[in-house]
Structure formats: structure tokens, C-alpha cells
Write a structure and sequence with these properties.
Blueprint lengths: L1 E6 L4 H12 L3 E7 L9 H7 L4 E4 L3 H13 L3 E4 L6 H14 L3 E3 L5 H14 L4 E8 L9 H11 L22 E2 L5 E6 L5 E9 L2 E9 L6 H13 L3 E3 L6
Parallel strand pairs: 1-2, 1-3, 3-4, 4-5, 5-11, 6-8
Antiparallel strand pairs: 6-9, 7-8, 9-10
Amino acid sequence: MVNIAVCGANGKMGQEVIKAVNSADDMTLVAKIDINNGEFATIKDAKDSVNIDILIDFTQPKSIYENALYCLNNGINIVVGTTGLNDEQINELKKLSDKNKLGCLIAPNFSTGAVLMMKFAQLAAKYFDNAEIIELHHNQKKDAPSGTAVKTAQMMAEVNENFTSGNCEEVETISGARGANSYNNIHIHSVRMPGFMASQEVVFGANGQTLRIRHDSTNRECYMNGVLLAVRYVNENRNFVYGLDNIM
């Protein structure tokens, strides 16, 4: 049995993760960690009391980097579902994971459908020189753009050098009107509004045609198969992985 701790246990995602872990035959939940009335307030508190094989983190962008550093410096493998890490932080966590031979899997999105959406977008990016990303989330999501949008842009940029081919020189009369200009000029537009949970659309354009690839999540349960897949991978392969697409 794999001993699992969930950090952010009282959050909406944390509660779903706890249900999934409790339903898995090969996992045991040993710690619920949350600064708001958790069984343990900190990862250190939990580590001092129970044996943790893998920690699953669904907390906040402001805390995830320190949480991951603590785990990788203290013999705990980690699966990260919290978004908001920048490229430099991800690279540092990779170095630490490699150095200490501990598993660290960071996934901007655990939905298998969303991962396929990213793969399809990467495939289409070979054939279109113009593309933009629109991501839509509930208004309690703190980071923008979403980790899924950033990962999608990175994957698309691997196969094409410029996604604003033929565009005229642009002038924003209101700053930010064209969204964030990310990897290889892929513009990302973030929507935050009640009524959404998590959606993303990648729009491709060429003379005489457009292609839209979209994924919608309607509940948090859809992420759980991906979370359990990640936990099982980390348990068997103590290495660094960024993106669920690399283990599917």
C-alpha cells in the first residue's frame, strides 16, 4: 500500500482527491493537511507523525513552490496539481528531484480529455501559423493564465516558431486587449466568471479556414483518474515529469 497525504485537504479539489484515494485498493490516506482546520496544519506536522510516501498538493499558487521544496528536501515524493509555478521554479524542482532521486510530477491538468486537447493542439500547430488560446475558469481561480493554457502554448511552440504570421502592426488602445503574448507569439486570453469551472479553446486560423479545439470540465471528478495515474507512476518511477501527457 502507498501512504498518501493530501495537502489542501479541505478545498474542493482536495476533498475529491480524498474520495479517490479512499476508493483506491492500492493506497492508504495517512494525512489530511490544511491550514484551515486540517488534521495537520503543515506538511512538517504530518511528516513528524506519520510515514508519507507521496504527497498530493492542491493548495494555492503562493504556497506550492515552498511545499514542493520541503517535500523534495525531506524524502517525500510529490504530485502537484496546484498551478502557478513559473519556468524557473519548475526547473529548480526538476534539479532537486533528480539530485535526491525523488518523484515529482507536476500536471497543469489531470483531465485525460484536457490532455488530449493539448496533444491535438500541438498536432494542429504544425499546420497553422496563426493561433490563440482562450481559457475560461470560475472567478475563485487566482492565477492567470491557467497552467493548462501555459502548457498548451509550450507544446505548440515546440513545433512552430511564430503564431502571428502575416498580422499587421498592432496598437492596443486599451492595454491588454490582445491578451498575454506568450511562447512564440501565442496570445492567451483569460476569462474569470461565475458559472464556469474549467474550459479551454485553442483557435487556429489560415486563409479561408479556422479550426477550434475545445475542452470543458463540468465537475472535479473528471480529474481523479489522472491524479491516481500520476500517483501510481510516481510510486514506480522516482523521477521528474511535467505534464500528464508524458505518462499517458
